[in-house]
Amino acid sequence: MKARCLCGVTQFEVQLRNHEVAACHCSMCRRQTAGPLMSIDVENINFIDQQHLSVFSSSEWGERGFCNMCGTFIFWRIKDHSFANINVFTLEHPPEDLNFNLEIYVDNQPSFYSFNNQTKKMTEAEVVALFNSNQ
Questions:
Q1: Is pTM beyond 0.85 here?
Q2: 2-133 belongs to which CATH class?
């Protein structure tokens, strides 16, 4: 699937792992996106043009990619590249059967917003334990 940043200079292709969308309520995602990050897991990211791609080391085990021209958040991935997800809104033609079914870092979510969807909810500790068990 083709994807790109807002200004179009950072272009890439991805293979989706599934059609399940997750929302992250952690403070880093909220600060970077001005709200919860809506993401989808991918098998790989093949950059067609990455001249304006910047990667920020956001934790001991994670990093975030963004376009340094327009600021679009593109991906979050484990530093060894064994797991990655992308901003679902970067997809040029998202599948029509996307399913929003997971919220993570729910214990970090501010009280002034909530979603109506029925989703699985995971706390920060549960997410960290999941990624630590996969390493």
A1: yes
A2: mainly beta
Distance CA 105, CA 119 (A): 13
Mean pLDDT of the chain: 95
* Of 135, 130, 113, 132, the residue nearest 23 (C-alpha): 113
Cα 75 to the center of its chain, rounded Å:
5
pLDDT of 135 > 60? The answer is no
Confidence label for 49 from pLDDT (cuts 50, 70 and 90): confident
Domain boundaries, the chain: 2-133
* DSSP secondary structure letters along 82-109: SSEEEEGGGBSS--TT-EEEEEE-GGG-
The reported pLDDT for the residue numbered 42 is 98
Contact indicator for 37, 76 with CB cutoff of 8 Å: yes
CA dihedral 37, 41, 47, 52 (to 10 degrees): 10
Strands 73-78 and 84-87: antiparallel
